[in-house]
Design goal:
The chain is mostly beta strands. The protein is 12% helix and 46% strand. This is Pyridoxamine 5'-phosphate oxidase family protein.
Length: 141
């Protein structure tokens, strides 16, 4: 990122970042409301998997809601963000084993038997050079 404030990430860079991270925010629609919730996930070839207990998230998937997933990372000078848009489905009992071969374990002690697959329709990413001038200000006394 030379002098550009924002540069797009290539598809390969987006997938590399998706493979390196495991925490994301999942957005979905329930009737006339948009919800967003944190999840942990893992990449399985060209899809994403996450585990879920019952609730709004699983109900939205069962109802065919389109989903969006976002990950980001930043340091003092740079930020990156990847957004995945696509469809989600609950894996049947013959496919759930796919999650066992991935580093996909619940972060909290709740039981999450359901495995959900997100099939991306669009994957985009952006990298930003941050200026954040308030970090470099000095107070005058």
């Amino acid at each position: 990122m030379d002098d550009e404030v924002m540069t797009p990430l290539s598809p390969d860079e987006c997938w590399e970042m998706l493979r390196e991270e495991e925490f994301a925010r999942l957005a979905f629609r329930m009737v006339d409301e948009v919800h967003i919730t944190p999840i942990n996930y893992a990449v399985d070839h060209d899809t994403l998997l996450f585990r879920s207990a019952g609730g709004d998230k699983l109900l939205a998937v069962a109802m065919g809601s389109e989903v969006a997933l976002e990950i980001d990372r930043f340091d003092e000078d740079h930020a990156r963000s990847v957004v995945v848009r696509g469809s989600a489905r609950i894996l049947d009992e013959h496919e759930e084993h796919r999650a066992e071969n991935l580093p996909l374990r619940p972060w909290v002690g709740t039981v999450k038997y359901n495995v959900v697959e997100i099939t991306p329709r669009v994957v985009t990413g952006r990298a930003f050079r941050l200026s954040r001038p308030w970090l470099h200000m000095t107070l005058h006394e």
